[in-house]
Amino acid sequence: MSEPVSLVLAGARGHGHWHLANIRRLTEAGQVRLVGVCELTPLAPEELAGLGSPQQSDDLTGLLASTGAEAAIICTPIHTHAELGLAAAARGVNLLLEKPPTPSLAAFHRLTDGIEQAGTACQIGFQSLGSGAIEHIRSLVASGAIGPVRGMGAAGAWVRDEAYWQRAPWGGLRRLDGRDVVDGVLTNPLAHAVATALRIAGADRAEDLASIELELYRINEIDADDTSCARLRTRDGVELVTAVTLCAERPGEPYVVVHGEAGRITFWYKADRVLLERPGHAPETTEHPRTDLLANLVDHLRDGVPLLVPPARTGGFMRLVEAVRTAPDPVRLDPTHWRTEPVDGGVRRVLPGIDQLTADGAQRLALYSELGAPWASGPAGEGGER
């Protein structure tokens, strides 16, 4: 067997707990070895059960130097990704970088240029892009199973309470101390919706997009958007509409739907489940395996297996991030349009009717304003023009 890849995890709390569990699983399989944890407050022994005794420090550069780690997982605040990623690449350390890669295109280009110069590998953490369902869907479309594609929709209706936005000093911010953060629903919690649709469409590189329109709204006491929609047009003329919210009446599973002239394909990307519907045929449901992105990075480093999510394959998504970053601030909806309700000892804000609007947006390929939402204004394009 190959030697395990030595790892440092930067950001082990919050979503970092998921990475710890995944590292534990791959450690048991002999694929990785955790040699360092970068956190402001050291992890307790019980948090590191099954992971040996990795070094702990709040200095990533020093930790990489002292451990000699071959790879690092960066699961830190969005606005630190480029700086920490570049520091790792400069030491020849390979990366698994959480999404979104950076909060701006300029930072993305700095990061990718630094990685290229260093000759290191970088995987971006869009886990849904490891699903075998994506190639299955692309094969169905290529075979003509649903006829010519009319367009694609994506919908996500999630629930987050007010405490969610207080999870970190940067939560729900567009900027922090003069630095871009862009922690909105489109670019962070439901970022997979857009990234998955772009991959299915074969339009995930920056140059694949012709235009972007946005509608950004908020009902929570934040700077960023908690309810938004976007229309992306590819160079090939395919229209992709995404409608998402964190203010749903009831939580639902996010999905991408491919509309064809002779049927449609729906992909619930968290469940790796695909539904093919065609007139004259019984509905066909299939479930698909998923390749873990850290395991794929290990296979790349040991056997030269291609990376599933290299930075270039997230360029289209970064075009969306940049459009959100440069757009006017999200429209704050009047309290007459929303309500509050208790949840788990806290409070959340609910936008009545938004669950149906997200579904209608994905089905009809329409923005909220085009669906007649009483609180919706018109879209803004890239650069912020309305």
Automatic annotation (TrEMBL):
Residue stretches making up the GFO/IDH/MocA-like oxidoreductase domain: 135-265
Keyword Oxidoreductase in record: yes
Gfo/Idh/MocA-like oxidoreductase N-terminal domain mapped to chain residues: 16-126
Pfam family of the protein (one): GFO_IDH_MocA_C3
InterPro entries: Gfo/Idh/MocA-like_OxRdtase_N, Gfo/Idh/MocA_oxidrdct_glycsds, GFO_IDH_MocA-like_dom, NAD(P)-bd_dom_sf
Domain of life the protein comes from: Bacteria
Protein keywords: Oxidoreductase
The name this protein goes by in its record: Gfo/Idh/MocA family oxidoreductase
